Amino acid sequence: MRIDFLKNYYTFLLVFLLFFLNVNAQNKTIHNDQFWETIDGQPIYSQGGGIFKFKDPKTGELKYYWYGAYYKEAELYRNDPSQTYTQDHFVAVTCYSSSDLINWTFEDHVFERTEALKHDQGTRWMGRLGVLYIPEMKKYAMLIQHNAGVLIALSDSPTGTFKWHRKLDMTDRIGTPNTGDQSVFTDYELGKSYLVYSYGQGRNKIYLSEIGVKNGEVDLLDCTEIFRGKGREGNCMFKYNGKYYVFASNLYGWDSSYAYYLVSDHIKGPYLPTNNMLVTPGSIDDYAHITQTGFFVNVKGGETETVIYCGDRWSNFAGNGLGYNQWVPLSFQEEVPYFNSLNSWMLDENTGVWQVSEDNNYIKNPSFEADRKAIPSSVKPIQEQLKGWIAKVYQGNTIVIGQKESPQLNYFNTTEDRKYVIGEKSLNIEDNVAFERQVYQIVTSTPFVDLKDGRYTLMAKVKSNSRFKNLEMYADSAGLQQKAVISDNDGDWHTVIIENIIIKKAKVEIGFYAKGSPGASAQIDDVSLIKMK
């Protein structure tokens, strides 16, 4: 009797533990603002690509396959983020596989630069790519920008070696030989794939072409113009709740921008508002979590469907933070997408449900990397304040666009600075006259992310000189202010912390107050506000 009881008890315990481990295995964290690794700790190098669902050639299991460009500069920047690189040297297209979109396994370099050199010794730029399955040929096709054209490579397997098939000159279709950024979108419900791309010069038009077979070769079967207006790049799309969404970014090179979108009931349009892309709500305060639009992944779980925005952060070429891939979940208010700018969140691929992680940093633009120019800026984008932050001048020179006496709100970090802080820029508080200034950010709940009441820790890195009468970091919630006086003034970077900040009514103002003599100078970087456990 005792033995049977123990057998039943341990059986129950084993089942419970397996259930517990399985539940926890399905809730994993996607942590942005850092360099990502595979499950065996190897660096993930994948930029300007896409994720597609194919059957594993060995097991027949449907899996996610992530393809992207590997540039030599990505490796160099990861090893030493104090350096930004001006050139791009393509190494290969990488392929990673996953069953949950979080734990990735490196498969192979599926297209090497040497393969392109066999057919074009002048090969330089390669990127902006996607992969689809061609049932008529029983082949997998990769479409990738190659110099001034679109290269198509074929493979027998999603993880196999892709070989040069042909190269498309787009002149007869759109008037330029090249596409101005592109991605591959697969409509799994219709079983069709499309190339989404813009006009090669000025990029003021966006096109959509179905990918198929013509005369025994992989080709673009048609060409539909779906947008004509301001220049756009980073073209990509997804389907949600029966509607098609086309996204794109501004022409800011390697730097980040708002995420713009159009929506349609039909794949070929019309896309509305006609020729007037809208800014995605939630992407404004930090230029879409300091990214350029890249691609999307739909997670259709047992409870709900989540669309993941997969943004490219070209930090190796822009120096704008850590990590090359910043993924956030979208929410929807009817047909309007909402960008949830999160530093850390959890996804259950089985259910499709996402939630904010406990270690999420609620500060927007925390390392002051969103702004590509010295602010205030009189050149595009014309801008008076730092993204996500408000600077108030009580005494001293006022902030005026184009005025020589106006204080500069951001500081361009030196190579030495970047050994201690993240990215090319930091907050700048200084003036050549006596001044009093406050720089702050109001953190509150959004329509889809709650700022929960509780205790938080505010942290920042600061360096300053000795000409301040008062320099402090503060947090103010529900009338209760907590502050830390910044007294280190030796010109080195120091970490300033305020613990046990009590946030009530889902709102807090955090910031920095400064009162300085002429020549007082402080730089602030890497601000975080994280809930205490």
UniProtKB/TrEMBL annotation:
GO terms (BP aspect): carbohydrate metabolic process
Organism: Zunongwangia pacifica
Family: Belongs to the glycosyl hydrolase 43 family.
GO molecular function, one term: hydrolase activity, hydrolyzing O-glycosyl compounds
CDD domains the UniProt entry points to: GH43_RcAra43A-like
Designated name of the protein: Family 43 glycosylhydrolase
SUPFAM superfamilies for this protein: Arabinanase/levansucrase/invertase
Keyword Hydrolase found: yes
Keyword Hydrolase applies: yes
One Pfam family this sequence matches: Glyco_hydro_43
This protein's UniProt keywords: Glycosidase, Hydrolase
Cited InterPro entries: Glyco_hydro_43, Glyco_hydro_beta-prop_sf
Family matches, as PANTHER family: GLYCOSYL HYDROLASE 43 FAMILY MEMBER (PTHR22925), GLYCOSYL HYDROLASE FAMILY PROTEIN 43 (PTHR22925:SF3)
